[in-house]
Amino acid sequence: MNTPARRDGTPDRRKRGATPERGGTGRTSGSRDARAAQRGSTSRGAQQGGTGRGSAQRGSAQAPSPQRHTAPVGKKKPKPQRQVAQPPLLSNAKPARHQNVEPAESGGHNKLPWGEGERLQKVLAKAGVASRRAAEEMIAQGRVEVDGMIVREQGLRIDPQRAVVRVDGTRVMVREELVHVALNKPKGWQSTMSDDLGRPCVGDIVAERIAAGQRLFHVGRLDAETEGLLLLTNDGDLAHRLMHPSFEVSKTYLATVQGEVNNRAIGKQLKEGVELEDGPAKVDRFQVLELGEGRSLVKLVLHEGRKHIVRRLLDAVGHPVVRLVRTHIGPVALGDQRPGTLRVLGRDEIGKLYEAVSL
User: Fold this and answer.
1) What is the pTM assigned to this prediction?
2) Which side of the chain, N or C, has fewer Cβ within a 10 Å radius?
3) Spatial contact of 138 and 144, defined as CB atoms under 8 Å apart
4) What's the pLDDT at 110?
5) Where is the RNA-binding S4 domain (predicted)?
6) Can you tell me the distance from the alpha carbon of 326 to that of 300, in angstroms, rounded to the nearest whole number?
């Protein structure tokens, strides 16, 4: 066989089946091998994903979506994306802002339109009465009252700034900005928020609260030598009513006095009334607790609020005061609170205070 020669005259020893470095006319054995390989891949594609030429044409005419990926053979297919169910159209509809609400009965609560006020169970939860779920149970049991009416409706919207809410008959204070604290005033301290003479005063004890922007009122006064319970609040109406004698909020005192007190005689005199320089005064209750060593420990309950009223009453019956401590204002008790300390009032105490002055 004659070996073909190259252009330079050297023999060309390449095999016939080798693919030429440059493109030829398509009649070489390399071209035939390429066409055979193409037919083999087409038949394999037909066995896997289509039937014959038609599916190959469809596959080439319509490109697959970029979001769909064909899993390789022998590997797990990816999990399909979870389809989020669309909510029904009715759930997107909101009630009209102004509803045709029937007026509440006398003393009842006016329902607020959707979007105004707060739900009753949320108000109770914020006031520390119970969790929302427990508050819903209390409402269902008929234990919650709004503006004088028992409420059993879940989700009732109220105005926390105006509504009067009671649980089991006790008023619940739901206004977040209100402050009610009990102070055990030490002996020698002034019942003022500041003192021009630099003497220690109540304002020194609550200086941090005042610096934070709280404006506190003290309920009544105690003279410098008298110890015990002093209420502080930023509710001016409450402070005024607690001090006003027309609401007859009781104050309880323990007094150590000179001399041994005759319980029956002195008690009768104080209950009937004693004439003082600014008018008659009397106590609601009187009791001798201890006698000994020329002194007596007595307990007095009265709703008077005049200056030095307890000291003047006991002086008038011949038993000057040695030591005086106020232990109660209405339902709030001093207890074992240490001198100079503050205690935030509990929900029941606050509710009973407001109830005592008809707020």
Assistant:
1) 0.56
2) N
3) yes
4) 60
5) 118-179
6) 10
